[in-house]
Design brief:
The protein contains four helices and seven strands; from the N terminus they run αβαβαββββαβ. By secondary structure, the chain is of the alpha+beta class.
């Protein structure tokens, strides 16, 4: 499973709370499927990252709890009646200033190109935080 691979990578790479980290992509996971994995499910990944001061930009910027997403990032079979939120951008607190924002592409504009909607991310990195990303 995608989230299982993400969980394994997070266990392998020793991310410290002081690291400046961005994780972005198709996690293919959501809290609604936590029951299918006993360990390393979506909520485990989110909790592990939170312990490292790394949070979902969507949830932080929109002040939304996991499971309450209003903006789909994927449409099963490109069907507008089957929306899901599976794509995420997690970023360290040190990389998020007050003007940081995230939005998703709209179905009408993007569905001919992909069943996933693009994430548009604008980071407002505080001046004291030089970005040295670790790519996993």
């Amino acid at each position: 499973s995608y989230v299982g691979q993400i969980w394994a990578a997070l266990q392998h790479y020793e991310i410290k709370p002081s690291d400046r980290t961005i994780l972005v992509g198709d996690f293919n996971s959501h809290v609604q499927w936590d029951h299918s994995r006993k360990q390393g499910n979506h909520s485990d990944v989110v909790s592990f990252l939170a312990e490292k001061n790394i949070h979902s930009l969507y949830h932080t910027c929109h002040d939304i709890r996991a499971g309450s997403e209003q903006d789909p990032t994927w449409y099963m079979y490109k069907d507008q009646s089957k929306p899901y939120h599976l794509d995420y951008c997690f970023a360290s607190e040190s990389l998020r200033g007050p003007q940081t924002s995230i939005s998703m592409g709209q179905y009408e504009d993007w569905i001919k190109l992909s069943d996933h909607m693009p994430l548009m991310i604008e980071l407002d990195i505080p001046k004291q935080s030089a970005v040295e990303p670790l790519v996993i």
